[in-house]
């Protein structure tokens, strides 16, 4: 009997021991009352505000959408999105390099303030000129060559004036510039503009055939993918002997290449002339007035570019603008002073300096700014304004008799205006 009671007490003690162990582990047994503990409190996702990303000086990180953000660099913009500032480069080694930028030579900068914005009398024409989908020019570095000609035996590096424009002449007329040429007209034209070229020959370009005016005339253009157009152009060159063609694609975006080709051709085949006139094929030019202005200016200046000068033109930063210029191409706030590309004249000495400068100035797609702005600034060539250069359309005969140029003149209008300007029966007050 005593042994049986000891056994029962042992079982009861073991059961109580197990109950205590399980209870303290959180799972009641043997009829114990189950008490449900509340779940741990979890903070709800609050909207990201400046308080959510305080800027501290420690290295702790917080996480949003599985993206760690260092508190030291965190910032909140107006949209309450974190910006990880440590991902932004803090030195110039990682910033985009503008390889088209031309160093500003303070010695050559105008001192009269005309290159600064604010001259309301001269407004850039780039806001209303047509556009074209041609070949976009890429950035290129100038070709350089070394020379051992220095007196101290060290090598000097200078730009090669011919390697920077390596396009061959596919059609050329070296004899078009006579040895006694005073003024050579280089007309920028498109391959298909046959009637425009002929209208120039029939009108103001006919001065090239006048023995009393020592002028020469050539038309400059690029290449075409059309065999038919090329055949017609070759025949035109054989008939008139005034076509100069280079091996780059003829397009609006390649106008800068055309102007450099002009400078190249003059430096090679017409460097003994006195003056050079660059004009588009839709220009009307009063040649006697042009010669008079050039001769008068040359009395006091040995070298210059003459035309309609623009001052204070600002690059277009609107991506929707036809004249949008990325900062990678030009990152100055204001363009240098330049002349309208519709027509400008220069001394041959200036043309030679501009061609050499083009070897050191990367190509910029706006031709007038590139040649008469950037290259002229690099070369130190003075850019002069003359009111006789009209970059807009002018059809008044009495005005044309006093002017030098008029723009957007059709082939038939050139013929009509030329007759009327020289008609003594038409009187002007």
Automatic annotation (TrEMBL):
Keyword Ion transport: no
Entry keyword annotation includes Nuclease: no
InterPro entries for this protein: Glyco_trans_31 (IPR002659)
GO MF entries: hexosyltransferase activity
Annotated Polar residues bias: 121-136, 145-157
Signal peptide, first to last residue: none
EC number in record: 2.4.1.-
PANTHER family: BETA-1,3-N-ACETYLGLUCOSAMINYLTRANSFERASE, HEXOSYLTRANSFERASE
Family: Belongs to the glycosyltransferase 31 family.
Name of the protein this chain belongs to: Hexosyltransferase
Naturally occurring in which organism (per UniProt): Littorina saxatilis
């Amino acid at each position: 009997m005593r042994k049986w009671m000891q056994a029962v007490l042992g079982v009861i003690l073991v059961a109580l021991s197990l109950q205590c162990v399980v209870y303290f582990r959180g799972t009641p047994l043997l009829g114990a009352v189950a008490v449900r503990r509340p779940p741990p409190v979890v903070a709800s996702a609050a909207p990201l505000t400046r308080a959510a990303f305080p800027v501290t000086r420690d290295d702790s990180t917080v996480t949003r959408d599985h993206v760690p953000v260092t508190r030291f660099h965190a910032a909140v913009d107006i949209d309450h999105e974190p910006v990880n500032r440590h991902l932004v480069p803090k030195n110039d080694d990682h910033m985009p390099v503008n390889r088209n930028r031309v160093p500003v030579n303070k010695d050559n900068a105008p001192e009269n303030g005309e290159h600064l914005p604010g001259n309301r009398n001269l407004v850039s024409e780039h806001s209303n000129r047509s556009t074209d989908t041609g070949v976009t020019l890429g950035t290129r570095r100038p070709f350089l060559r070394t020379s051992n000609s220095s007196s101290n035996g060290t090598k000097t590096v200078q730009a090669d004036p011919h390697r920077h424009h390596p396009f061959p002449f596919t059609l050329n007329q070296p004899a078009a510039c006579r040895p006694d040429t005073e003024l050579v007209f280089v007309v920028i034209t498109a391959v298909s503009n046959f009637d425009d070229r002929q209208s120039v020959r029939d009108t103001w370009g006919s001065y090239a055939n006048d023995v009393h005016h020592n002028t020469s005339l050539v038309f400059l253009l690029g290449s075409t993918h059309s065999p038919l157009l090329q055949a017609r152009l070759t025949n035109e060159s054989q008939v008139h002997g005034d076509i100069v063609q280079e091996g780059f694609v003829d397009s609006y975006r390649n106008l800068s290449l055309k102007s450099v080709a002009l400078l190249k051709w003059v430096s090679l085949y017409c460097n003994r002339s006195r003056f050079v006139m660059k004009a588009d094929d839709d220009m009307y030019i009063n040649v006697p007035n042009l010669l008079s202005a050039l001769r008068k200016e040359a009395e006091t200046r040995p070298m210059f570019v003459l035309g309609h000068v623009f001052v204070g033109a600002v690059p277009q930063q609107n991506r929707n603008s036809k004249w949008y210029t990325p900062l990678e191409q030009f990152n100055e706030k204001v363009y240098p002073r330049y002349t309208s590309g519709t027509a400008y004249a220069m001394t041959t000495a200036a043309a030679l300096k501009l061609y050499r400068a083009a070897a050191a100035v990367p190509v910029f797609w706006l031709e007038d700014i590139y040649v008469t702005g950037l290259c002229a600034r690099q070369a130190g060539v003075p850019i002069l304004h003359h009111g006789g250069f009209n970059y807009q359309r002018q059809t008044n005969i009495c005005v044309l008799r006093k002017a030098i140029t008029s723009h957007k003149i059709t082939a038939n209008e050139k013929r009509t205006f030329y007759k009327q300007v020289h008609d003594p029966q038409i009187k002007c007050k």
